[in-house]
Write a structure and sequence with these properties.
By secondary structure, this protein is an alpha/beta fold. Helix content is 34%, strand content 20%.
């Protein structure tokens, strides 16, 4: 794809130089890491470790256990003590905004940074930036980067990168799906990537109580006729009541896109001190990243989110801001 080639040409030499000059490299993903973040971190870790680099990783939240089939998954750390170590370079992956990584900026002051991402809202916060909004996923970008760097993309890296592409395209079913993404996935499959294995682990991962919670959330779906919006909510107590972890609801915002004849859908995650909002749409004339950006969030045109310090209470199915 021409656009991807242009972005790559502008950033490749600077990133290559930073990789070559750095011995100790820390790779950081966003809060609540998904398949694209985990796949990006691990693919880069395998590649850079193979060059003899010392690699550290950091995510502010523990990654979902259903990605534990990925090689070196256990090395994705949510340990802030990593910032007490000395690093020559920090690589941010799949993070539209550095704030969304949960990193204390004082802890990384003075360290060169690389920013690899595909979110439209990414303003280029790194010393070197490889931001390709037209890419399906950050893993697709890293595939191109590794190819241009002459890397040997083996079976381990292929499975990591394919996980990110499948995650962000919804298994080649959403608007992020492109001919380029499918071509990259085809090549990764030839290199040993197992689509069926990734699908089984990342989709077929719900417990009985997890499915009951999905049903509870579905039962709360309402339509705001004034704005033609479908919405539902999840409370902090839901997880303890059903005895499941938060990751069991991964994907529920995407699932709401099956509702027809609405402008967009949203899922409210009601916490004790804040509310997280996930937005989805199938319409081409709506840009959810602009709406999320208004509230300090970001994302893509058809999938975005934000967090606000609102305490929303629920009583008999009705929501109110306290």
């Amino acid at each position: 794809m021409l656009f991807i080639s242009i972005y790559m040409d502008e950033s490749l030499s600077k990133i290559k130089q930073l990789f070559d000059e750095s011995r100790r490299i820390l790779i950081i993903g966003h809060k609540k890491p998904d398949g694209d973040a985990c796949g990006s971190i691990l693919a880069l870790q395998i590649y850079l470790s193979g060059l003899g680099k010392t690699i550290g990783t950091f995510v502010s939240d523990e990654p979902p256990v259903y990605f534990n089939f990925l090689p070196y998954f256990e090395e994705i750390k949510a340990d802030p003590n990593v910032f007490s170590e000395s690093w020559d370079l920090i690589v941010f992956v799949d993070s539209g905004d550095i704030v969304h990584t949960g990193v204390d900026l004082n802890a990384i002051a003075g360290i060169p940074t690389v920013n690899i991402d595909h979110h439209f809202s990414n303003a280029g916060y790194g010393y070197a930036n490889l931001v390709v909004p037209c890419a399906s996923s950050t893993c697709e970008i890293i595939y191109r980067l590794l190819r241009d760097l002459g890397a040997d993309i083996d079976r381990r890296i292929a499975n990591c990168l394919l996980t990110g592409i499948l995650s962000d395209t919804g298994g080649f079913s959403n608007a992020a799906t492109s001919l380029e993404a499918m071509a990259v996935a085809s090549d990764l499959t030839k290199r040993g990537g197992k689509i069926y294995q990734i699908f089984n682990h990342s989709v077929k991962n719900k417990s009985l109580n997890g499915l009951k919670l999905w049903g509870q959330v579905f039962s709360r779906i309402r339509i705001n006729r004034q704005y033609n919006i479908a919405y539902t909510y999840i409370t902090a107590d839901d997880f303890s009541r059903f005895g499941v972890s938060e990751e069991e609801l991964d994907g529920i915002a995407n699932f709401l896109n099956v509702i027809t004849d609405v402008n967009f859908s949203l899922v409210l995650h009601l916490d004790k001190s804040e509310t997280k909002v996930s937005l989805r749409t199938t319409r081409d004339d709506i840009d959810l990243s602009r709406l999320a950006g208004y509230f300090g969030g970001g994302g893509h045109k058809k999938a975005a989110g934000f967090t606000v310090p609102w305490i929303i209470s629920e009583k008999e199915g009705n929501l109110s801001i306290n």
